[in-house]
Amino acid sequence: MAAKAWGGRFQQQTDARVEAFTESISFDSRLAPVDIKGSQAHAQMLAKVGLISDEECQQILEVLTQIGVEIEQGQFEFRFDLEDIHMHIESALIERVGDIGRKLHTARSRNDQVSTDLKLYTREAIHRIDSLLKDLQVAFVERFERDQDLVLPGFTHLQRAQPVKAAHYWFAYCEKFDRDRQRLQDCLKRVNVSPLGGAALAGTSLPIDRQYTAQLLEFTDVARNSLDISSDRDYLAEFCFCMALVATHLSNWAEEWIAWFSTEFGFIKLPDAFTTGSSIMPQKRNPDVLELIRGKSARPIADVQQILVLLKGLPMAYNRDMQEDKLALFDSYDTVAACLELAAAMVEGAELQQETIAAKLEDGFLDATALMEYLIKKGTPMRTGHGIVGKLVALCESRQSRLVDLSLEELQQACPQIEDDIYQILGARNAMAALCSFGSGGEEPVNEQWQYWKEKLGI
Ligand code: ARG
Q1: DSSP label of 316
Q2: What is the pLDDT of residues 33-76, one digit of tens each?
Q3: Please, are residues 73 and 12 in contact by the beta-carbon 8 Å criterion?
Q4: How many whole angstroms from 77 Cα to the centroid of ligand 1?
Q5: What is the CATH number assigned to the segment(s) 7-106?
Q6: End-to-end distance of the chain based on CA atoms, in angstroms?
Q7: Cα(85) to centroid(ligand 1), Å
Q8: In the structure, what pLDDT confidence band is assigned to residue 1 with cuts at 50, 70 and 90?
Q9: CB proximity list for 428: less than 8 A, separation 6 or greater
């Protein structure tokens, strides 16, 4: 058992149960690459200000790189008694270069070190999630031409409401995922502020150059208050919230497609490669991937709670509770990344079931609002038009017919302003085509959205 780096004032060995209880190496070893990057920047800064020599710095940089390679290749042994990834790397360095290695931690604490690592890691996570979100947006946008001729019922309360061009749905998801991307870029502004050099909580009396390490690590700013640095995990709460909202959007989409995949809807066919069977019912094709995307969204949502509850009772500055922050970060990141990868593949591979959709498209009076708007254009006050169309719908329901089945006489009886151009409005397709306001689900406005997304995503 190695002596503890902090063991000077202790008279007893740490209890083995305490070591097993306090370790974080079992989940923070994935910080190794960013820990090494941060330490290398720190060493370069120590050399620049004269706290170590250039030769010492060179040795530290080389050995750290070598340790990084060993960790990556799985040739590095992790042990509970060395606590965390930071201690493992530092003690390996000391083992190999002795006193020179003992200088690396000059003017640094694990408190600013771990925050630096987390920020570097979160920055990479933001870039990866952003690119996965973009892939998913591209998958939706690329459906446009395939689904060009398709009209879908739009729902509110899961009741048939108004018809929209199918791609209107795809672009609706693009908008949600775009806001998610914007939120991540905003979060990045806080992530990109360097904590390194904040030391334990108070800064240091040594002549360090925090601007220099910030520059080396490509942070855009330097955090101003060492107490705040030591205690700040806002950026993790924000990142986890971003993940929770992406997961919520994915869950909404998954829920919708699960319904659409049912025999009752029959709107969509999912590729065999993305569905699973039943061990007893031979006919089954289950949307398990979608269900798990919906189900896994519980995790990022729980992770935000975990971070906030973890932080809310802490006094300034670092407290060991904060070690648990990584569990929320990694879990929300891994979960959302895995869901996004599968989501894009499913959006690409799914087929809308034209015939089933068309067969039921005239159900549910999707054209009722279009009829009311026709009456408004003919001078009928909106509320009066609403009442007239409501009565016509009731009449149709009593006959099990559609609005388009009403004769011109019947329609004129309800409202004398109606002329025979009404039949260019009635029917789901016509009602969709009549939609023309900015952002609506009609032909032209959806074409405009298509142009927008093609340009924005560089398709
Ligand atoms: N493994 C610890 C963590 O992740 C590192 C920081 C330890 N700092 C300390 N003062 N004990 O939070």
Answers
A1: S
A2: 999 999 999 999 999 999 999 999 999 999 999 999 999 999 99
A3: no
A4: 20
A5: 1.10.275.10
A6: 58
A7: 10
A8: low
A9: 151, 153, 163, 361, 362, 366, 367
Check if the interface score ipTM surpasses 0.95: yes
- What is the CATH topology of the domain spanning 362-457? Ribonucleotide Reductase Protein R1; domain 1 (1.10.40)
To the query of whether residue 278 is one of the catalytic residues in this protein, the response is yes
CATH 3.20.20.300 is the classification of domain 111-156+164-198+220-359: no
Atom of ligand 1 nearest to the CA of 322: 12
Domains 7-106 and 111-156+164-198+220-359 share a fold: no
Show me where the domains of the chain are located: 7-106, 111-156+164-198+220-359, 362-457
Q: Which of 86, 157, 297, 407 is catalytic?
A: 157
The whole-angstrom separation of Cα 190 and Cα 21 is 32
Q: What is the pLDDT of residues 223-276, one digit of tens each?
A: 999 999 999 999 999 999 999 999 999 999 999 999 999 999 999 999 999 988
pLDDT in tens, 286-300: 999 999 999 999 999
